Structure formats: C-alpha cells, structure tokens
Amino acid sequence: MPISFHCETCRGSIRVADGSEGELTRCPECFSIVPVPFEKRKTTKQAKQTAPADDPLGIEGDIQSRWDEVYPDAQPIEEPEPSANPFTYEPPQPLPEKPTELPERETLTPEQVAQKLTQLALATSVLLLASTLSTLCIAALLGFWVYMVVSTSSYRFTPILLGVLIAVILAMHLVTLRFLFEARFRRDYSRSVIGTSLSLIPLLNLAAVLSFPYSFWGLILLAKPQVRMHFRGEGDELDYLYQEQFERRRQRLVFVANLLFMGCCLFAVLLTMATWILASAMIANGVQGKYELLTLVAMTLMTFLHLGTIFGLHEARSFGNRRWGLTGMILSIIPICNIPGILLFPLSIWGILLLMTPKMRTQFRSHWDRMTE
C-alpha cells in the first residue's frame, strides 16, 4: 500500500511506495527534498476494566480457602525474617560496630622534642667516640702487623690472610664511623639508622660489648616521628625550635666573623703604620742593608695579605660571597695573614665549621644569585 503525505514546503501531496519510510524523496511540485515519514500505527483500545460486582463467575464477598472447613484451627505460617544465609531462617546477626575513636597517637611538646634531640646527640656522640677508638685500635693493629711482616720478612699465606682480614675489619669500622657521623649531625635518616644498627655488631664495632645500650637508646629515639622530621630531607619545613637553633648558629657565625674582622683590621692598621715608618726611615737615612729592604717587602706583603683576609671576613660577616667568606676564615688561621690568629685560631676553626653547614649556605647572597641565574 503506497504511503501518502504532504510536502513540508508547499503542502503538496506526495505518494511513495510502501517500505520507503525514513528515506529522502523529491516533491514533484516544488522539487524540495523531504524525508518520508513513518506510517502511524493504529492503537488498540484496552479492554474495559470490570468492577468486582460484575464478576462473570458470580463470586462475591471475601475469598475463602476451601480447606477452612476441614482444618478450622489451622493458623497461617508466619513468613521468616530475611537472613544473610538463604538456607536458614535464623534472624540476621547485628554487624560488629567499628570503633568511633581512633587510638591516641603519642604527641610531644616542643620542650620534649628538644630533650629527645639532646638525648640522641648524647647517644650518638658516645657511639661515635667508641667507634673512633675501635677504629684507631684496628688501625694500630694493622700497622703493627705491617711492621712485623716487613721486619721478619715473613710473606707466607697465613700472615697475609690475617692482614687482609684486619684490613677488611678496619674498612667496616670506617663505614660504621661514617654512618654514625650522619646520625650525630642529623643528616641522612636512613644512614643514621643503619649506622646505629651496625654499631651493635662487634665485628663492625669492637666497643659494641660496652656501648650496646646506647645503640638501643639511639634506635628508640630515631623511631620517634618528631625526631625523624629534624633530619635533612625528612622535614624541610623546619619548626620553630629548629629555626631558633639555626638562628643561634647564624648569630654565632656573625659574632666570630666580627671578632676576627676587628682583630685583623687592627693589626692591618698597625702593619701599615709600621711599614710607612720603616719606609720613611729608609728614605731619610738610606738603605743600610739588604735585611732592612727584605723587612720592608715582607711587611708590605703581610699588609696586603691582611687586607685580603679582611675582605674575606667581611664577606662572611655580611653573608655575601660564601667562597670568599670561607677563604677569609681559612686565611685567618695563618699568622702571616692574620697576626692575632695565633690566639684566635679556635674561633677561626669554629667559623669554618659553621660555614660548612648546608643550611648556612642558603643564607649567602651568592647562593641565591646562582639559583636565580
């Protein structure tokens, strides 16, 4: 049966063959392209719902079972409660309640954290001292072995094997000593734990028989999260306690650099005055001998060395260039470059140790200049 419909543009009549629903066709009057619509389905009327009173079987009233007259005392079976197990009719068991409160975590006050850090420094210092003494004993034993082998010319297999064994033990002691150094200055956390653990082994630390309580004490302190965060790389966000400790170190460095700077400036002025006096005397009286000339040259050279030391110490006290500051600290130990260095050399060594601190490096202007390049 063909499908007949109207064009959407000119409302003209279009007739196409049956089965072309959804296809495109052209209107014969306006030549526009129009889609062929689908034929509307005829809806069937639903049967009218009959009322309960119009039951064709003539059943009226409540529906009763045919077994009620046979078993009048029978009671309907109660439906079982839903259960998790489909094969049983047991009531479901209540689920165990989860604890609403989490276990309390050990928290330490800033004063307790500072106390733990002090205890860790004490324990690692004792272990470091014991390991150092053990290493020195092993090194002395190795030196004695070399002396005995060379003096007796005994190059047999057994003495050589004994010497190799002593050398291996010495190398193990050096490894333990290196890792304990990390624990003492709170640098790498994993190496600190390894070094404290190695200090329990007598083969790696001869003093382990006496110092093992400090090893256990150090491991217990290293397991504290509040202690771990003070190691390098474990807690770069320094809390205020560590920041106060760092500020104290910074003030100490400034104090040491200022003291050395003033002492070097004072003697540089004195050297300059002495050089001018000697030069004036030589000009007025003439050169009496080569020793006077050498003295003048030496005093002039020492004056310039003092000026270089002053420049380096100024860089250290003003946190300018770190390399120049470190050079000035090293030159302040040499009496030729700093005459009061004979008495103040402990301060120079202290300043060098403070300058070698990794965190102190970030305070210098040269560090930030390299970071921003």
TrEMBL record:
Residues 98-108 have a biased composition (Basic and acidic residues). The chain crosses the membrane at residues 126-148, 160-181, 193-217, 253-279, 291-313, 333-356. Keywords: Membrane, Transmembrane, Transmembrane helix. Residues 41-60, 75-109 are annotated as: Disordered. This is Uncharacterized protein.
